[in-house]
Amino acid sequence: MDAADVVASVLVLGIIIVSLLSNVVVLICFLYNPEIRKQVPGLFILNLTFCNLLLSVSNMPLTLVGLITTGHPGGSGFCQIVGFLDTFLTTNSMLSMAALSIDRWVAVVFPLSYHSRIRHRDAVIALGYTWIHSLCFSTVATCRSWVGYHHLYASCTLCNVRAKGTGTQFIIFTVALHSLTFLLTLIVLCVTYLKVLKVARFHCKRIDVITMQTLVLLVDIHPSVRQKCLDEQKRRRLRATKKISTFIGTFVVCFTPYVITRIVELFYPGPISPHWGVLSKCLAYSKAASDPFVYSLLRHQYRKTCSLLANKVLKRSPLNSSSLRMENNAGRSNTNSNTTNNIQPPTNKPLGQ
């Protein structure tokens, strides 16, 4: 192993650890919090988490072994199974991200009719399509024996070396695969999230107009308060842009180098650096580690659930619940004392008086 292989091995190991821990936390939050389970996006996040976890325990460790041993890890049959999972899980996770973006677009653009437009039945149908779509491509690749150990990526995946004699068919299949998964998902992400950003900016602009009108009327307002309101306007606009940039940016950064390398590999006759191939594969793997933070763990509902679980594990009660319990006890004691004071002793007066 040279220095580059050592760095790549450490990188893959770090991605495996982060991906396993973060996705397991998301899964625990989903199982623990009934409110998350009731929400339609929770089904898409659950499917995405399932794909990321399975990728973390099947494909990533095999890539790590391939980097360490600099050879073929496992037998040919085992590698074909892992290659099948690589195509299936990657395709499934991309389409799940597209489904999540459509769900958020409907929630923002049609907030009043969201629950009638997006129901659990619709989510199940969308997930059924993602599974059928993914199974079709991965099954065809496996049945045609187009999956195997690829030395360029040090992993079991689509392999053009195994497609000798069917080069044209393999090229058509690979281009169709990436066009109907990566390119399709990228278009859906850009269209939906840019529309969401447009609506968010429109609402921010309306709020800004109302805020400015209020500041004009309040002539005696302190300059620091006025500046604070203006700063809040800027933060609100930047927050929406930052979220949309994160959704689209992580997808592009993680998957684009790998997909471009796969396409270039089909048409470029010269050799491609194996260090670049492994790096592009690591970037694709890193999406599984970043998805829990992008879609789940940074949201208030998941952070609150994680806090409750941490307090439960550490045998502590949350401060809010303890203070609420103290307030309830104090209110109960005050009620009892007031009730006692309001009870008047009976007077033994004659009836005539």
Strand content: under 5%
Q: What assembly state would you assign to the polypeptide chains in this entry? A: single chain
Radius of gyration in whole Å, from Cα?
28 Å
> Percentage of helical residues?
over 70%
Main beta-sheet strand count, sense and barrel state? 2 strands, antiparallel
**Could you spell the SSE succession in H and E letters?**
HHHHHHEEHHHHH
Which structural class is indicated by helix and strand composition?
mainly alpha
The count of DSSP E runs of length 2 or more, i.e. the number of strands, is: 2
Low-confidence runs (pLDDT<50, min 5 residues)?
Answer: 317-328, 330-353
InterPro entries: GPC_Orphan_Receptors, GPCR_Rhodpsn, GPCR_Rhodpsn_7TM, GPR26/78-like
Protein name: G-protein coupled receptor 26
Function: Orphan receptor. Displays a significant level of constitutive activity. Its effect is mediated by G(s)-alpha protein that stimulate adenylate cyclase, resulting in an elevation of intracellular cAMP.
Main location: membrane
Supply the key terms.
2 strands, 11 helices, disordered C terminus, two-stranded antiparallel ribbon, mainly alpha, 353 residues
Summarize the structure.
This is G-protein coupled receptor 26. Keywords: Cell membrane, Disulfide bond, G-protein coupled receptor, Membrane, Receptor, Transducer, Transmembrane, Transmembrane helix. The protein is mostly helical and 353 residues long.
Characterization of the model:
There is one protein chain. By secondary structure, the protein is mainly α. 81% of the residues lie in helices and 2% in strands. The chain has eleven helices and two strands; from the N terminus they run ααααααββααααα. A two-stranded antiparallel sheet has the order 1-2. Strand 1 and strand 2 form a beta hairpin. Helix 1 packs parallel to helix 9, helix 3 runs antiparallel to helix 4 and helix 4 packs parallel to helix 7. The chain is globular, with a radius of gyration of 28 Å. The C terminus is likely disordered. This is G-protein coupled receptor 26. One of its GO terms (molecular function) is G protein-coupled receptor activity. One of its GO terms (cellular component) is plasma membrane. Keywords: Cell membrane, Disulfide bond, G-protein coupled receptor, Membrane, Receptor, Transducer, Transmembrane, Transmembrane helix. It comes from Dicentrarchus labrax (European seabass).
